[in-house]
Specification:
CATH architecture: 2-Layer Sandwich
CATH topology: Alpha-Beta Plaits
CATH class: Alpha Beta
Largest sheet: 4 strands, antiparallel
Shape: globular
Number of domains: 1
Oligomer: single chain
Number of helices: 3
Strand order of the largest sheet: 2-3-1-4
Distance between the termini: 33 Å
């Protein structure tokens, strides 16, 4: 029985923030509480949130789904606009995964 080896994946996720949710420090603290202490969090434009993270997982999709769940808790109004894998082949337009993320 072979175990799948965890690999480090790097992603950038871009979100639209709605309402009054623009406190970067509070969002970063909540993401840290969700286990994303090393994620780079930025608001380059008003109403937008960018998250860059590197996580180990057996599958690349697990990183994106986990990050999406954490962002949903940290910034409930955040709507995912786009994501891209920075460390290898970009799979950001794999429709089944994209649909699963958008529904969370």
């Amino acid at each position: 029985m072979s175990k799948t080896k965890a690999v480090e994946y790097t992603y950038v996720l871009n979100y639209q923030l709605n309402g009054g949710e623009h406190d970067l420090s509070a969002i970063a603290e909540r993401l840290s509480a969700e286990g994303y202490k090393d994620a780079l969090v930025g608001i380059g434009r008003a109403g937008r949130l960018t998250l860059e993270l590197a996580c180990k997982a057996p599958e690349a999709e697990e990183v994106v789904l986990g990050a999406q769940a954490a962002v949903s808790h940290a910034a409930p109004s955040a709507k995912l606009l786009s994501w891209v894998r920075r460390d290898g082949p970009c799979a950001s337009w794999r429709w089944p995964l994209w649909a699963a993320i958008r529904q969370q």
